[in-house]
Amino acid sequence: MLVGFLNKEDSKLKNPATLKFSSGVNGDRDFRTGMESYKHNNPTTPKTQKRWLTFLGLTLLAGAIVILAHSQLFAVAAKPIQNSTPNLATSPAFFLPVAKPHPLPPTLAQWQDHTHSGDYFSQVEKTEVGYLVWSQFPIRVYVEIPKAIAPEAAQAWVSTVLKAVQQWSIYLPIKVVETSQLADIIILQKVPPLQISPDNKIPRARSALTTYVLYATDNTLRHRFTILLHPGQTGKYLLAAARHELGHALGIWGHSPLKSDALYFSQVTNPPPISPRDVNTLKRVYEQSTSLGWTLPK
Question: Would you give the DSSP letter of residue 247?
């Protein structure tokens, strides 16, 4: 399920120019876009006119980019992902960095699937910025300690989520950080917004929801993820949901059609571990071009 709307950016980033969206509640493909204005107070000299055009391009981009979200459902199979996002192919080239592949991280470069299990790369969406590839390592993950439950239960929840982080760290360099301000991926115990599909007005609960934001810092295009995990999930189902949503946040922006993969589109009775197909798909994603991690055009 893919939803989105504009929120304000926090001011803790260094020189941020931010396009920030978070999860919405209006159905599988109810997208809303928003635009943050840039106020330019300098005299209109030829030099500042050039700067103004650059910032205007970024501002217009904010009105065009749609941020997506993946979700799992309680006992309800997710619908296949459809391609209905805006096409930026006609936008001026200076809006985004030229999409190029980054070098493969060594952990993925060394990965070999001796079982020849294949992949589901064809199910992974290419976004307006290309594929959602990380290029700065380690990827920093923050797991918030739940405050609304007993300390023992909160610690058990954190330990389970960290187990999912550790499982993915075999394939990509990941570091757990102590504050959300330092994080690339933030994981929270929070009820995701209800899902209301366009053809069915009855709201349905989600077990998890993953969203991302785009922002610019140090003149480079970056992204950041937030994962919401339903408080009702415990044990192996919490581990499966955390593992699944982390797969999205690490770059697999799509679902597998096979129940034997961690990124299968719905919860199953006996959740599988990360499969060779999951890792094969992740490796193929990281071989693709992206505008993320590259310098914004001047």
Answer: H
